[in-house]
Design a protein that fits this description.
The protein is α+β, with helices and mostly antiparallel strands and 691 residues long. It is built from ten helices and 30 strands. Strand 7 (114-120) and strand 8 (127-131) form a beta hairpin.
Length: 691
């Protein structure tokens, strides 16, 4: 999937190199520099590589990390003085922050590497260069905040606990019977003032990349970098939610159809709880999650999320997440808030009761430095601590496993969360925001002004302006089935312009997130097919998750004439067991794609939503990047084999794009590879427009 922008972090893969002053020195008379290199990969946000150099005079001009076939070129991003204001601290990050860089970083983890620094003398402006001998690396704890990493890099004090609760406040007068809170919503204890809470660790995130997707707060899509967060969003001090003293009694054991989920901070401070229930009535499975009231301290912006998932074999199940924000930046007093309660129903024949379950999550996040960080959460380590079997089955309860799928090889402890791509995670989605005004010749909501999703309709341009359209091309953006909104549709304008210049009418669309994504695409496709001009051909194109949606539309609507899909999963049931071709990749990329699809559509629908398992009449062009970290080349071969097994005359063209520097899908490709792709696009549609 194209790297979704502001999605919570997923997996962290990192290494830290500490180079002693004897190993590297600057061309400065004031003495040697102290250099610390901290390389960290955060999935969907891409690679976050930082090199901090502390010296008395001068700054490096360039920094390169090499080893084991990998080469990371760093660029200086920030310059500041340390607390003593006697030395300059320079932070460096990987150039481009693309998936190939993230893959190279993964290849270097826990290995010896070489760091090369070029200095520029202040007076003579001459270069000084020295290659440092390989050094051993040590793997840092993957959860500290960015600020904690910087402090550790320069020998400062270790990071403090995420939350430092105060002693309980003096007891208040006993409330009257009418004022007494319900038992399901205990009132938390008084919490510390903002100044007494240290920054909590960020939400864990899966590895990297552009979109899978793959990923990860993690990463701007391969070809769609997210907009930078608004400045000055963080208040002077980000207080934690009010927290009660740590629980002294063990969590209650779940009973038939009921489980109490403790909502706690990373430090273990209990701030509330939630009741998760599941029951079977006849053949209908019902579930509910309801959280207690949580007291939030003033001076910060919070986000409360509640998620419920009902799974039962041979059914579509039920998946829902609800979020709402609470802005207390201008408040002076704590406020009690209750996360949304959710109810779910799985109608129909629920026959395999022993394998059915309800899975819940309550999440409290705080906005810090332009990103959302987890401040407190109900258990996320596995189904065995966050799910419950339904009551009323009349049979012995079957133990719940920690996960129903394989864990990440690089982060086996990463489970659950919202939009993380981890095993047993939930799908909610992120709105990309409004789009800029469409260019000349393009109309917003041109197909259906009342549609629930934004889309843009463009008419033929260039030498074909004013002429009848050769056909209609529907463009679907990549998203990991998570990102949505008008701004995502606007990222397709460059591709739409290419088709408009070829004489085609274009419809660039977004969709709602998760399972509603396919529903919205099919709604738009039906409108386009019904209104096609003079029986002109209708085709679709999409990348990553957008390609999967385009192929599924062609499988469900035989009237579709052609599909161009790039970096696209074609069989969601097999992708997790396949390997990507290039060594410059995140090894868990295909598994993350399957996890995101499961969160969006449910485990029982993976085969149904795999294009390779359906006959497709349309002409197909399926392209995959050689350095794609999320989609194995085997996925393209799989759909070609499946279609030709059904129809030996099926037109299925495959193209593997060599790596390069041009952003595309999940990995940058070369300009020559893109030219070949565009040539094959024209070959694909030529027989359709020559009718």
């Amino acid at each position: 999937m194209r790297r979704p922008s502001p999605i919570p972090p997923l997996v962290v893969v990192g290494l830290v190199l500490v180079l002693p002053s004897s190993a590297l020195s600057a061309p400065s008379r004031s003495g040697p520099a102290r250099v610390t290199v901290a390389l960290t990969s955060t999935t969907t946000l891409g690679v976050r590589v930082t090199m901090a150099v502390k010296e008395r005079r001068g700054r490096p001009r360039s920094v390169t990390v090499r080893g084991h076939g990998a080469r990371l070129r760093l660029v200086r991003r920030t310059i500041r003085r340390d607390r003593t204001r006697t030395r300059v601290v320079t932070q460096w990050r990987v150039s481009g922050a693309r998936a190939s860089g993230r893959g190279q970083l993964t290849a270097l983890a826990a290995k010896r590497v070489t760091v090369e620094v070029r200095w520029t003398r202040r007076k003579a402006r001459s270069r000084w260069r020295r290659t440092v001998a390989p050094v051993k690396v040590r793997t840092p704890t993957p959860t500290p905040t960015h600020a904690d990493r910087v402090v550790e890099a320069f020998g400062g004090p270790a990071g403090q606990s995420a939350v430092t609760p105060l002693a309980p406040a003096p007891p208040a007068p006993a409330p009257t019977e009418s004022e007494a809170p319900p038992k399901s919503a205990p009132v938390p204890q008084q919490s510390p003032p903002p100044s007494q809470g240290a920054a909590p660790p960020p939400a864990q995130s899966p590895p990297p990349s552009q979109g899978a997707a793959p990923p990860p707060a993690q990463s701007p899509p391969p070809s769609q970098a997210p907009a930078p967060p608004p400045a000055q969003e963080q208040p002077p001090s980000d207080p934690p939610p009010q927290s009660a003293p740590p629980a002294t009694e063990p969590d209650p054991e779940p009973g038939p159809g009921h489980r109490e989920l403790v909502i706690a901070t990373p430090a273990g401070d209990r701030i509330g709880d939630a009741d998760l229930t599941a029951a079977l009535g006849g053949s209908v499975l019902r579930g509910r999650i309801a959280a207690s009231t949580i007291t939030l301290a003033p001076g910060a912006r919070y986000r409360l999320a509640t998620c419920l998932r009902l799974e039962s074999p041979a059914t579509d199940g039920h998946r829902e997440c609800r979020r709402r924000e609470v802005d207390l930046r201008g408040a002076t007093q704590p406020r009690a808030e209750t996360p949304s309660a959710l109810d779910g129903v799985v109608p129909g024949a629920v026959t395999q009761v022993a394998d059915s379950f309800a899975h819940g999550l309550v999440l409290v996040e705080v906005r810090r430095s332009g990103t959302w960080e987890v401040l407190a959460s109900s258990p996320t380590s596995g189904l065995d601590v966050a799910a419950v079997r339904p009551a009323g089955s009349g049979s012995p309860e079957k133990p719940l496993p920690a996960t129903l799928v394989s864990r990440f090889a690089t982060a086996p402890d990463l489970v659950g969360g919202v939009d993380t791509g981890a095993p047993e995670s939930f799908c909610h989605g992120t709105d990309s925001g409004p789009a800029s005004p469409p260019p000349a010749g393009v109309t917003a909501y041109g197909i259906d002004p009342g549609a629930a999703f934004y889309h843009e309709v463009g008419e033929p341009s260039g030498s074909f302006a004013g002429k009848p359209a050769k056909g209609v091309m529907v463009l679907v953006h990549g998203s990991g089935w998570l990102l949505h909104g008008a701004a995502m549709a606007a990222t397709l304008r460059a591709d739409a312009d290419r088709w408009r210049e070829r004489g085609w009418r274009t419809v660039a669309t977004t969709h709602r997130p998760c399972a509603a994504s396919l529903t919205d695409v099919m709604t738009l496709v039906d409108r386009v097919l019904a209104g096609r001009p003079g029986g002109a051909p209708v085709c679709l194109t999409g990348f990553s998750a957008g390609g999967q949606l385009a192929l599924m539309a062609a499988a469900m609507r035989p009237a579709i004439d052609c599909v161009v899909a790039g970096g696209t999963p074609t069989d969601l049931t097999t992708i997790a067991d396949q390997r990507v071709d290039s060594w410059r990749t995140f090894p868990d990329g295909p598994l993350m794609v399957r996890n995101v699809a499961m969160a969006a559509f449910g485990s029982e629908r993976l085969a149904e939503l795999s294009p390779a398992k359906h006959p497709i009449r349309a002409r197909l062009l399926v392209a995959t990047g050689a350095d794609d970290w999320a989609i194995p080349w085997a996925q393209a071969e799989q759909i070609r084999s499946a279609q030709r097994a059904r129809d030996p005359a099926a037109v299925v063209r495959l193209l593997k794009l060599e790596g390069g520097s041009v952003p595309w899908a999940h990995a940058p490709v070369s300009e020559s590879a893109l030219r070949e792709l565009y040539r094959l696009e024209e070959e694909l549609v030529a027989p359709l427009t020559a009718r």
